[in-house]
From TrEMBL:
This is Uncharacterized protein. Residues 68-77 have a biased composition (Basic and acidic residues). Pfam families: DUF6158. Residues 55-77 are annotated as: Disordered. It comes from the Bacteria. It comes from Streptomyces alboniger.
Amino acid sequence: MNGVDPGQLDDQQLIKELETIHRTRHTTLLHGSDDALRAHDERMAELEAEYLRRHPRRSVAPGRTRTGARERGNTTS
């Protein structure tokens, strides 16, 4: 594991870690070594799993569901 165990982070620290890892994702994908990408994948999965464990009933925006995406795709302008 890289970094602090996500279960040991308070909510504010967890959100900050998630924001940072999501912000750096694109650059890591495009320019990181295979090892860096693998470590990034593992850490992101750990952080996201902890967030979901803490917030199993998080609000879901209708547009972020399959149905919502289909409705956006069927809209004519």
